[in-house]
Amino acid sequence: MVFSYSYGLGDASPPIAGVGRAQSAAAQAQDEVRALENRLERMKLVTRALWEIVRDHTPITEAMLEAKVKQIDLRDGKADGRDGARISKCQKCGRTIQRGQDTCQYCGHVQGFESVFDWIR
Ligand SMILES: [Zn+2]
């Protein structure tokens, strides 16, 4: 190891400011990841509840759900477990933009969405 550095929680500030900033940024990133994980778990819970209501009250089966998931996954030509391509074309100028982006960064055109799911990407 070329360089090793640590300081206690009670220290007012680290002797090397860059180390303190890096540790702060790392802690903030960990907090953001935890918050995203919590949101994902809540979304999974709601999705499962919705699915079980549909399954229990309609003729739709688990096999039908799996087939639809595979069909949607393959819409971009790749079986990658993702809902479509991450990039898209601006509806006005045709330049490449991030999918789900509200406004084209090149021409300013406000994109229309084909589905509400495009809005939540
Ligand atoms: Zn554009």
Identify the notable features of this structure and list them briefly.
3 helices; 121 residues; 2 strands; two-stranded antiparallel sheet; 47% helix
Structure at a glance:
With 121 residues, this protein is mainly alpha-helical. Helices cover 47% and strands 5% of the residues.
Side by side, the strands of the main sheet go: 1-2
**Based on helices, strands and strand pairing, what is the structural class?**
mainly alpha
Overall spatial form? flat
- Enumerate the distinct ligands: zinc ion
Unreliable stretches: none
Mean pLDDT: 85
H and E order: HHEEH
The termini sit apart by: 42 Å
% residues in beta strands: under 5%
Helix content: 40-55%
Describe the structure.
- This protein has 121 residues and is mainly α.
- Helices cover 47% and strands 5% of the residues.
- It has three helices and two strands; from the N terminus they run ααββα.
- The protein has helices spanning 17-57, 62-73, 116-119, and strands at residues 87-89, 96-98.
- Strands 1-2 form a two-stranded antiparallel ribbon.
- A hairpin with a 6-residue loop joins β1 (87-89) and β2.
- The radius of gyration is 22 Å and the shape is flat.
- The chain starts with 16 loop residues before the first helix and ends with a helix.
- The mean pLDDT is 85.
- The site of zinc ion has 8 residues, from loops.
- Zinc ion (ZN) binds next to loops.
